[in-house]
Amino acid sequence: MEKNKDIISRAMADLLEIPKDLVLDIPKITLIGKSELFLENHRGIIEYSSQRMRINLSRGFLEILGNQLEIRALLPDEIKIEGEINSCRFFD
Amino acid sequence: MINKFFDGLGGVITLLVKGKNQERIINLALSRGIYIWDIKWQGNDLSLRIRNSALQAFQAIAAENDFELEIAGKRGLPFLKTKVQRRIGFLAGAVVFVLTLYVLSLFVWTIEVEGNKTVETKQILQSAARNGLHQGSGKWKFSCSDIEKAMLRELPRLTYVQCEIQGVEANIKVVEKVWPDEEVFGPCHIVADRDGVVEEILVLEGQSIVKPGQVVGQGEILISGIVYPPAPETSDASKLLEPEEPSFVRARGTVKARTWYEGYGECPRRIETKVLTGETALEINLMTPWKEVCIKKAKLSKNGYYKLARKRIAANTSPGMWGIYINKYHEQKKQVQSFTEAQAIEMARESGFNNLRRKIRPGVQISDSYIQVLSSPSDAIVRIKIAIESIEDISRVQAIE
């Protein structure tokens, strides 16, 4: 049921040329070099240490690995992370 | 930037969260709409920043979930009050400083005078002071335009006065009147300005009275402005003709004459001079309307010679003079110099010439000079009489009365 809704929403977004992150509630990541990361549409922090960060998403979570990771700003929908970012991985 | 400004207005608190799984408190705060930023680990504690207004809500969350909170820092306007209360003396000092600066800026402390050549600065300052502008006078007590008008009335040799106040300094700019040269209009004679022997005479208008080689005295008419017409020629010697009326003209011409000047010069055979050694001693005195206090005393030897250079920074206020005197003593030593007779005569001659040059008008051509030694060789001072001979224009205009 959830999957069908997702397919319809994706088709509507394609048809109306609306950004998918608005319609589908999927995360939008902006990475500036390897020092700054903006993440929109998150669902809270699962784990946070200076080397590893796991951020909850609407589906699955995002794992960020790096050094001296800091949460520079935290808002209900947005998060800004600074530090030396080595990798970003999605987990369902 | 604007966020930082509003954060500063409301106040920002840096907290250290102690406990286990501190990520939980972040999510809980987020769900309650508490804005958190600068989240980082400090050892085992989680450091974060929140707004002052969110502190109570955050403390409630921490208490509900067994987290311990420690306030690591406070920044912003609300916390400034406690800082100010702690440093009340500093604040009072700052206020007193600003007030003093403001009060002192209401007075005139220095007065500059510009543009005067013949009128003395002292005279201008005295006139300004009589009208209310002096060192230490309050700016509200006088009006610049009134002072300008009064000064123009008091000092007739001034044609323009501008008074300007810039900060604590008053600038008085003046323009002096330029008087026309005293000229003689109408008929006039040319008379001798000084005694001499006429060498050369050139008459452009008028009638020459003197001839080359003639000795003339000061004030004697050289070229007359009263011209008598030539006597009419007649064959009959017995027939007397009535003399015609003389005409009055403005005599013009130059009369060059040989003139003499006498002067005197002297030079001691032995001169004691004081030479600066380069050593200096400083003395500072504080002057109050009631007493003069020595801040630093100069170390001077009893038998030494010193040249004093005095610098004064003072202001005249209503109770009296306030200021600082700086006395700089330059050490001197005696130096004795002896001259031979020939050297002393030469120096006396130079001194005599220098004295004479003040008497001689500029542009006078010196044709000869004579020296007569008045002193005997055994005298301690060599005295000489110096005379110079010159050729100069001695003509001067004198109106016919």
Give me a quick take on this structure:
The complex is a heterodimer of chains A (92) and B (401). By secondary structure, chain A is an alpha+beta fold.
CATH topology of chain A: Immunoglobulin-like
How far from one another are the termini of chain A? Answer: 18 Å
Structural class of chain B: alpha+beta
Counted up, domains of chain B total 4
Shape call of chain A = elongated
The average pLDDT of chain A is 87
- Specify the CATH class of chain A: Mainly Beta
User: Major β-sheet of chain B, in short?
Assistant: 5 strands, antiparallel
CATH homologous superfamily descriptor of the largest domain in chain B:
ACT domain
Spatial strand order of the main sheet of chain B? 11-9-15-21-20
H-E order of chain B = HEHEEHEHHEHHEEEEEEEEEEEEEEHEEE
Strand order of the largest sheet of chain A: 1-2-6-5-4-3
Describe the protein:
Chain A has 92 residues and is an alpha+beta fold. Chain A has two helices and six strands, in the order H-H-E-E-E-E-E-E. In chain A, strands 1-2-6-5-4-3 form a six-stranded antiparallel sheet, with no helix packed on it. The longest helix of chain A has 15 residues, at 2-16. Chain B has 401 residues and is an alpha+beta fold. Chain B folds into four domains: 2-82, 2-Layer Sandwich (Alpha-Beta Plaits), CATH 3.30.70; 110-176, Ubiquitin-like (UB roll), CATH 3.10.20.310; 188-254, no CATH class; 270-338, no CATH class. Chain B has eight helices and 22 strands. Chain B has helices spanning 2-10, 23-31, 55-64, 77-86, 88-104, 121-130, 144-154, 341-359, and strands spanning 12-18, 36-42, 45-51, 68-75, 110-114, 158-166, 169-176, 188-192, 196-205, 207-208, 215-216, 221-224, 226-227, 247-248, 252-268, 270-287, 292-296, 305-316, 321-338, 365-373, 381-393, 395-399. In chain B, strands 11-9-15-21-20 form a five-stranded antiparallel sheet. In chain B, strands 2-3-1-4 form a four-stranded antiparallel sheet. In chain B, strands 10-12-8-22 form a four-stranded antiparallel sheet, with no helix packed on it. In chain B, a hairpin with a 2-residue loop joins strand 2 and strand 3. The radius of gyration of chain B is 45 Å and the shape is elongated. The N and C termini of chain B lie far apart (93 Å). The model of chain B has no long low-confidence stretch (mean pLDDT 87). Chain A binds chain B through residues 44-50, 70-76, and chain B through 22-23, 26-27, 30-31, 33, 35-41, 46. Strand 5 (61-74) of chain A pairs antiparallel with strand 2 (36-42) of chain B.
